[in-house]
Amino acid sequence: MQRFDLCVIGAGPAGFAAASRAWDLGKRVALVERDSPGGRGLADGALSSKTLWHLSNDYARVCRKDRGYCATDVSVSYDAVIAALHEAIDERRAQLDRQLDHFATPAAHGGSVTRVRGTARFVTAHEIEVTDESGAVQRVAADNFLVATGSVPRVPPGVVVDGKRVVTSDHIERLPKFPESMVIVGAGVVGCEYATIFANFGHTKVNIIDRQPRILPFEDEDVAEAISRNFERIGIHIHRESSLQSLEVFEDHVRYVVCDRQGQHCEPVHVERALVSIGRVPNTKGLGLEAIGVTLDKNGGIVVTDTQSSIPHIHAAGDVTADVALVNVAELEGRHAVEQMFSAPTHKIRYDALSAIYFLSPEVATVGINELEARKRKIPYRVAVLQNQLVPRTIAMRATDGFMKLLVSRDEPSRILGMRVVGPQAATAIQGIAFLIEKGGTVDDRASPPRRDRGRSRVRSRAAGSQRAQAVGVRSRAAPRRRVEPRRACVNRAQPRSTRGTGSGRRARGNGQRAAGSGQRAASDGRRATGSGERATGSLEKRCFLHGVNKPRVGRRSKTHGERCASRD
After folding, report:
1. pLDDT at 542 over 80
2. Spatial CA neighbour of 418 closest among 455, 365, 467
3. Measured at the alpha carbon of residue 551, what is the angle toward residues 546 and 553, in degrees to the nearest 5?
4. Which helix (H) or strand (E) holds 138?
5. CB 300 within 8 A of CB 284
6. How many other CB atoms sit within 10 Å of the CB of residue 284?
7. Strands (E), 224-289
8. How far is CA 338 from the centre of its chain?
9. In a 3-state reduction of DSSP, which class is residue 13?
10. Which helix (H) or strand (E) holds 520?
C-alpha cells in the first residue's frame, strides 16, 4: 500500500487545481478519479454549456435582419453543433491529460501526481479503498485528504428522470436532435442558460416553470426583469409563481400540469422534452465520511471552516461544500486548502469579492454583493445605475439593452460593495471593480489607472460618482427609479470641490492643442473639448457629470464647471 503526502478525491476543477498546487510545493499526491479529469468543469457542465451558448449566439447573430446585411439560406445542424461541442471538450481534456502525464514523473523538487482510477471510500481517517471498473480494490493512505467530488443534479419528489424524455444537465447535451418544445423546471442560472441556448437556435419552443414571482430570485429585481423582457422577446414563455403539479412521460412526449400559487387554476401542457434544473446537491454519498466522523449538513455537504472539515487533516473544496458553486471558486478553494495543509503562504478567500458570469441573453456579470444581500445584512448603501443606452460602446454595437449598477457603502470613504452589469461583454466591465473590492477600494479609487476600453471606464467613473443614490429603505421599490438622463446632473456635497482635467486641463480637439487651466473649455480659437474630463479628487460641494456632449458655441466664452453648476441652482 502506497502512502502519499496528499490524496485528492475527485479530479474536477477543485481537485485538479489542488493536485497542481501540491506538485508546485514538492508533495507526493494521489489523484483519485473514476472518470476523465475535468469533472463537471468540462462535459455536462461549465465548458460544454458555455460552448453551446457561444455557438447559439453566433447563429442568432447571423439570423438578425437589423445589422445592415441579410444572410439567406442559413441553417443549423444539431449534429454539427454537438460535434463542435465535443471538439472543445476533447481539446481541453487533452490539455489536462498532458499536464497529468508531466506531473507523473517525479520532479527535481520532489513533486509528483499519481493517477488512481476508481471510486473512493474512507475506511479510516487516513486510508481509503479505491474500486475500479473491474471490481479490483486497492488501498491508498495519506497524511492529508482533500474531498473534491463535486455535486449532482437535484430531482424533486415525484419526478422520474429517465435521461431521454425527462433529463437533467447531465443528459441535456445527449439529445438526438433539437426538441420542438421543452419545459424547464426551475428558473435559476443553469435553467435560464439552457433556455437561452435553445431559444437562440430557434428550433425549440421553451417554457420555464418558476415558483417565485420572478426568475433569478437571488438577483436584484432590475437584473431579473431585464432578462425576463428579453426572454419574452426571443419567444421564451415563463410560468410565473407557478408550481409543477405533475409530470408524466408518454411514448413520444411529456405532459406536465402547472398550477398557480393558490392552486385554483391548473393547466396541462404537452412538450417533447423536460429539463429538471432546480439546483444541485453535494456528491458525498458512498464516501463513508460519516463513519469516520466528518460532519455533514442536511444536504450532505461537508461542513468546513476555511476548507477544513471537522477532522483537521481532511479538507473539502468546490461544490461538495456549502459555499458558492462556481468553477473559479472551486479552483481557488482547492489551491487554498493545499496551502493551508502544508503551511504555504496563503490569503483568506474573499467570497464577497468573487465574480460570476451568467451566460444569458443579454449576458450578466456580477461581483460583490447586490441590493438584496445588502438589505439582508442591513448594510446602508447607495446605488448608481447607468443604462447602456448612454454608453457609446454599446450604442456602436447596436446592443443597448441592459445597464451597469454600482453599490457603495454610505460611510466615508465610500467602500465599493458590488457591481452588476447586464449587456454585451458584461464580464469585461467588472474586472477592475473586482480588483478594487478585493483590495478594499473606495469610490475615489474607481478610475485611477487608464483603461483601453474608454467607453466602459467612463461608465464606471460616472456610476461611481453619481450621487443620485439613495439610502437603503428610503427609495420605494414601487416608485419608478430615476435613471441618469443624457444631460448634466448636478449634486450637492458638504466639502469644497477640487477638479482636475486631462493633464493640466481638458483635452482639446480640432487643431491638436489643449485648453489651459483647470476644467475650462476652449471654444473661440476652434478648439472643442470632449467628454466631461473632470474627476473628483476630494469631496465635492457640487459635482456636475456631463452625460452627453455639451459643446460651447463658437465665439462665446464657455462657462467653467462651477459656473455651469451654479447656473442650475
Report:
1. no
2. 365
3. 145
4. strand 137-147
5. yes
6. 24
7. 237-239, 242-249, 254-260, 266-271, 273-276, 280-282
8. 25
9. helix
10. none
Counting runs of H as helices and runs of E as strands, what totals does the chain give? Answer: 12, 28
Q: How do residues 72-86 score in pLDDT, each as one tens digit? A: 889 999 999 999 999
Q: Give the span between the Cα atoms of 111 and 95, in whole angstroms.
A: 19
CA distances from 165 to 169, 247, 535 (A): 13, 11, 58
Query: CA-CA distance, 476 to 469, in Å (whole number)?
Result: 12
Q: Beta-carbon neighbour count of residue 233 at 10 Å?
A: 11
Q: pLDDT tens-digit profile of 109-147?
A: 999 999 999 999 999 999 999 999 999 999 999 999 999
Closest CA to 548 of 530, 561, 526: 530
Q: Which residues pair with 357 in a beta bridge?
A: 365
Q: What cell was used for 50?
A: 458555455
401 contacts: CB under 8 Å, gap ≥ 6 = 226, 229, 230, 362, 388, 422, 423
Please give the Cα distance from 368 to 320 (Å, whole number). Answer: 22
Are 191 and 207 in contact by the 8 Å Cβ rule? The answer is: no
- Extract the C-alpha cell encoding 490: 448636478
Query: Distance between CA atoms of 217 and 137, rounded to whole angstroms?
Result: 46
* pLDDT in the model for residue 489: 35
**Cα–Cα distance between 543 and 534 in angstroms, integer?**
9
User: What CA–CA distance (Å, rounded) separates 366 from 264?
Assistant: 38
Query: Which residues, other chains included, contact 404 with Cβ-Cβ below 8 Å and sequence gap of 6+?
Result: 385, 386, 388, 391, 419, 420, 421, 422, 423, 429, 459, 460, 463
- Closest to 431 (Cα-Cα) out of 366, 384, 358: 366
pTM of this structure: 0.79
CB neighbours of residue 24 within 10 Å = 15
In order of 373, 462, 475, the CA distances from 472 in angstroms are: 11, 21, 7
Q: What's the DSSP call for residue 446?
A: T
Q: Which grid coordinates are listed for 167?
A: 433529463
Strands (E), 74-136: 112-117, 119-124, 127-131
Amino acid at site 144: N
H/E element, 528: strand 528-529
Cis check: omega of the bond before 362, within 30 degrees of 0: yes
The Cα 534–Cα 507 span in angstroms is 11
